[in-house]
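Below is how a single chain appears once it has passed through the pipeline. First comes the sequence as given, then the structure the pipeline wrote out for it. We keep one example in the README because the format questions we get most often are answered faster by looking than by reading.
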Amino acid sequence: MFECKDVAEEASNYLEGDLPLGKRIGLFFHIVICSCCRAYIQQIRQTIRTVGVVKPREQANVDTQALAEQLRALSKKDS
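Resulting structure:
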C-alpha cells in the first residue's frame, strides 16, 4: 500500500505518466482514498496550468551584474 510520502515523492512523475504501471495504479488508488493527496495532486495540476498560461515578461535592459551582486548579498545575510 502506498503512503502520502510516496505521492509527494512521485507527484510529478505520476502527472507526467513516467511511472511503471504497477506504481501508477498504486498511487492512483491511494489518491482515490486520501483526500489530502487528492487535493495535493489537484493543486499541482492547477499550478502547471497556471504557469503554462502566465508567462513572465522579460526586460531586455536587466542589469545582470547588479542582480548577481544583490543575490550574493542576500545569500551572505542568510549564512
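The chain has a mean pLDDT of 87.

See the next section for the split statistics.
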